[in-house]
Structure formats: C-alpha cells, structure tokens
What does this fold into?
Amino acid sequence: MTKKLQTFHKYKSIIIKKSLQLVSITQRISQIKQPRGGYLNRKSFEVKQLEPVTFIDTKYENIAPQTIGLVVDYLTRMVINQDKEKSFAISLTGAKLAGELQTAESLLKEINDNDDLSIIKACQLVNYDMVYRAGSMPKEFKIPDQDTINNIKSLINRSLSFFNQIGEVKMDGFTFEGAYTSIIDTGDGDFLTEDTLWDFKVSKQLPQKNSTLQLVIYYLMGKASQKPTFENIRYIGIYNPRFNQIYKYDMSQADSEMIETIQKRVIGYD
It folds into this structure.
C-alpha cells in the first residue's frame, strides 16, 4: 500500500469513528423527518426576481451540478474577498487528507479570476471537498467544455451582481464554534451581510424543505455561538443564480414552537 493511500485510510478511519457519534449540519438534516412542507415552508419566504430573468439550464453542461455549485460559490468568494486560500480552504483540507496537498496547491496557483483556465482548475480542485465532507477519494476529473465554462462565468457574474445590490459581505465561510452540540459538531455557512445570513443554492430546483431547515439551523447556531458577527442578523436568505432569484425570511416572525422544536430535537440544545 502506498504512503498516500495509508494516509487516506488513516484519516478515513478517524472520520468513520467520528461520524458514529457526531454529524455535520447537512448530515443531521438528512436524519430528520420534517412535517409536510417542512418546518419552514418556502411559501413563507418573500421572493424577488432579479434581472436578467433567463434561467441558466444544466442541459448542456458536462460536469456534475454539485461541482458547478462549489466552483460558483468558491470563485465568487475569491473575487469578493481576494483570498483564494480561504475561499478554497475545504478543498485544500481534503487534499491534505488524501495526501495530495502539493497537487492541490499547484492547481490553486492557476486560479486567479473568472476566466477559462481558473474555472477548469477550480473544477479539478473542488473534487477534494468530498474527501473532507464524505471521507471518499476524489473522482476522476472531467474537463468542463466551453458551454459549461460559459455557464459558470454567467452564474458567477450574476452572483457578483447580486452582492453589489445587497451590500457588503461581512463574513464568508463562517462556522459555529461555541454552538456545536453532542449531536452536531461541524457545519459551515456561505455569507453574512449586515442583517442577513445567506445560503447559495446553484440549483435547477426551487428551495426545498432541507434548504430552509439548514438556514434556520445556521441562524440558531449563529445566535447561540454569541459571535459578534451574528448579533445583527435578523433575516435568512437563499440566492439561486440559475433562476437569479432571492428568497428571504424575517426570523423575528418565526413560530416560537417551531424554533423550540428545532433547537431541542434537531440541534440538541437543552
């Protein structure tokens, strides 16, 4: 067995042992049977359609939608915060666990903007996310074709335009130290603006109940962490650049019984 594989199997066994007791936020959501329509139905959200209204379809894309979602998310972060190590931190952690950090770092060097080469290298780099998130080695890399690259560029440009409209990003890639429980021990959110916690969904589906529950958990754990950055957060929001739509909800209007149920039964607060 090669040294690289030994390193990977060592970390995979740690991940497996850990997952028997504790889970991430998304893993926890998959364990929960929600009421019909979800704890927080998407119909409760205010919807805003941005320009252009054209739907960016997945039909002619040649790589997995999940990969495209990560690339759009991380490249948007990188353009905003000008910090590519931070923007691709999970990918780099995954590469380290797989014993391929040097390969990942050489890919990162070639990622500089929303151009063709950066997009191709980012599609390859985000493959390492699955090592960190799922404990599995990256799949064989598929080079995005020109139609896919053009779609990714459009999705990123829409995302940057969205942030120009809603104001300064106060934090991206935030975590919840001080708020984890005996059930949930990991989870990372997308963006915080002045008063809103935003989740990016690069999807051809409208928001599902798992997405709305994820946002509520982020909000409650953010508040429980007592980090100053969450102090002014009042709204939760989803932005989907494929539809170019915003879904936004005022948490001050949330049903107190629903909040208590999620706090106790889902997150594990006393």
